[in-house]
Write a structure and sequence with these properties.
Elements lengths: L3 E4 L5 H12 L3 E6 L3 H11 L3 E3 L5 H15 L4 E4 L14 H29 L2 E6 L2 H5 L5 H21 L4 E8 L5 H4 L3 H9 L9 H12 L10 E4 L7
Parallel strand pairs: 1-2, 1-4, 2-3, 4-5, 5-6, 6-7
Helix pairs in contact: 1-9, 3-4, 4-6
This protein binds acetoacetyl-coenzyme A.
């Protein structure tokens, strides 16, 4: 059945692949984006998927953004909380702002999107929320106390909300990607990235589409008995 699906951070990287995959599944997909106007316009021109701008870390803006989507397309049944940023640095160099921005956007964004959409899913008796966590939220990562804490928080958030949604037909799951070939990973200094890739048993970076396939399963009717779970898609880098 065709549903209205919102993918945050949906115009680039993993989010873009998720948008395309959900569209191929027959859903009405809406991509959210925060700032890269040029990329968002190119994305819409290439895919036909509408892109709506708001900052998921801003509570009021998220409520308004989701209300605009619902006014234009109807109730939101599927939410993919994919938007995320990095501000890497060892603790002694990390500023409070680096800490706060990552928590505000990566973890706060999940709360804000759930506040905007979970009550409606609960009332209608069907919903799917997939939160994109990270291998680095499971295992930690040197230089990422902010990101690892936010992503680890996403895994806890997922398990708590899954318990609240279960009896209302709303599943809440997480995917923990490993290192995926995106702009975010390309920003890791080359010598550091080489060492990381050397530790991936499959011997390569993942592809965004490989995360999108997991999202397709978790959001389908076939995934109805799967809730509160974390699907690790990381080439065997961390077996958890
Ligand atoms: N464990 C122990 N020591 C480490 C280490 C590790 N994992 N990584 C680096 N070090 C050590 C280095 O060997 C070095 O030690 P020496 O000075 O004794 O040689 C010291 O730490 C400093 O290392 P750098 O030169 O790298 O330090 P820097 O200050 O220039 O940079 C950093 C620090 C910004 C954290 C950099 O190491 C970095 O970018 N690391 C990658 C972080 C990362 O993996 N980010 C993931 C981004 S993608 C993503 O997050 C998506 C996802 O979900 C997977």
């Amino acid at each position: 059945m065709a549903r209205v699906a919102v993918v945050t951070g949906g115009t680039r990287g993993i989010g873009e692949a998720i948008c395309q995959r959900l569209k191929r599944q027959g859903h009405q997909v809406i991509a959210n984006y925060a700032g890269n106007e040029e990329k968002a316009q190119a994305f819409t021109a290439a895919t036909g998927i509408p892109a709506y701008r708001w900052d998921v870390g801003d509570h009021e803006a998220t409520l308004e953004g989701c209300a605009r989507v619902e006014a234009d397309f109807g109730p939101i049944d599927i939410v993919i909380n994919n938007a995320g940023i990095t501000r890497d640095g060892t603790l002694h160099r990390m500023t409070f702002e680096d800490w706060n921005e990552v928590l505000r956007i990566n973890l706060g964004g999940c709360f804000n999107m759930a506040k905007a959409t979970f009550p409606g899913m609960r009332e209608r008796g069907w919903g799917r929320i997939v939160n994109i966590g990270s291998i680095n939220g499971q295992a930690g990562q040197y230089g990422q106390v902010n990101y690892a804490a936010a992503k680890s928080g996403i895994h806890g958030f997922t398990k708590a909300l899954a318990q609240e949604g279960a009896k209302f037909g709303v599943t809440v799951n997480a995917i923990a990607p490993g290192y995926i070939d995106t702009d975010m990973v390309a920003a890791v200094p080359a010598p550091v990235l080489e060492k990381i890739v050397a530790k991936i048993p499959v011997g390569r970076l993942g592809m965004a589409e490989e995360i999108a396939r997991g999202v397709a399963f978790l959001t389908s009717d076939n995934g109805g008995f799967v809730t509160g779970s974390t699907m690790s898609i990381n080439g065997g880098q961390h077996m958890y």
